[in-house]
Amino acid sequence: MKTVSKIIALSVAGALLGAGAVALNTQGLNAAYAQSASAKATVDSAKAAGKIGETAAGYLDAVNNQSLDAATKAAMKEINIARKALYTRLANEQNVKTEVVAALTGEKQVAKAGGGEYVLKSSGSWIQK
Description:
Layout: H1 2-17, E1 22-26, E2 29-33, H2 37-48, E3 52-55, E4 60-62, H3 70-94, H4 98-112, E5 118-120, E6 126-128
Parallel strand pairs: 3-5
Antiparallel strand pairs: 1-2, 3-4, 5-6
Helix pairs in contact: 1-3, 1-4, 2-3, 3-4
């Protein structure tokens, strides 16, 4: 199970950290994860401004329940929907729960968050890196 967890975590983290469409290979299976460039740019800007952060659950969220403008909310939602679809597909391929894939990826996303960005730890606390 530990090997499967590593494969899933590395595959998903790699896919999520790339810009635009990134090809990933999970045990010989080609798949693509796509997010629009505009959604990524909007989210990156909101992250830099401390409005959106990565969570240990594997999704983006508003830092401390801040109010977000419509474009930022839509971009965050687009990316979270794409993440869930990817997590679900990989979980089905690896015969594990979607939440396991999401949490493994969340750990990687939190660890890779840039300096000054906010992350929501599994304890429920937002911290600035």
